[in-house]
Amino acid sequence: MVKTFNKILDAIEKAVITIDSILLVIITIIVVFQVIARKLNISMTGTEELARYAYVIFAFLAWPIAALRGTDVCVTFLFDKLPGKIRHAVLAVFHIAMSVFAGICVYSLIKNIENAKGIIAASNRWLHISWVYIIVAVGLVATVIFNIVRCVFLLTGQAVYISQDEKDAMELEAAKEAFEKQHELEKKGE
After folding, report:
1. Per residue in 43-73, pLDDT tens?
2. Would you kindly state where each structural domain of the chain is located, as residue ranges?
């Protein structure tokens, strides 16, 4: 069951990475096109707005994946000072709080989707604002779910949070072992 669940999560992650990669390329092309147009004194309406909405979609699709993998942005200084099990419990509470926050945002977005029906973007007449809100709402629903999943993973030991000090110690140990292996190979070669 856990393997199947992880396969589903991996498939979702790959799909989001693909979509976000495409969005990032589109954003880059739009911004470069906009800069070139400005240098040529060509007025471009809609490109900035389109890039902005693409970035919003990019961010709200990526957020649940970051939360699930434990790579979301958070200040870890305090977490890093706590012992392992306490650290996991505090992070689990953090993920629950993020789920509640995202849930409140979903509720607000549902109200905004209802209010935004029929409203189109100012410069891009084909883009309905409610479409953007729907995509953001889907991302936030996934954020709620994935934060809860991450919380469960932390509490059951299926996910581990390694402090920066622990990462540094592991990297130092790995570098030391690599240096010692290299030194041994050099001794044998002499």
Report:
1. 877 888 888 889 999 998 988 888 887 776 6
2. 2-159
